[in-house]
Amino acid sequence: MGVASPLDTVRTVSDLRARIAAWRAEGLRVGLVPTMGALHDGHISLVKNSVADCEKTVVTLFVNPAQFGEGEDFGVYPRNEERDAEMVQAEGADLLFAPGVEEVYPEGHSTKVHVGGLGDVLEGEFRPGFFTGVATVVTKLLLQSLPDEAYFGEKDYQQLQVIKKLIRDLDIPVTATGVKTVREADGLALSSRNAYLTPEERAQAPILHGTIAQVAEQVGRGENPRDLEAWAKGQLERGGFWQVDYVTVRDAATLDEAADASRPARVLAAAWLGKARLIDNVPV
Ligand code: AMP
Question: Which CATH class is domain 9-179?
Answer without folding.
Answer: alpha beta
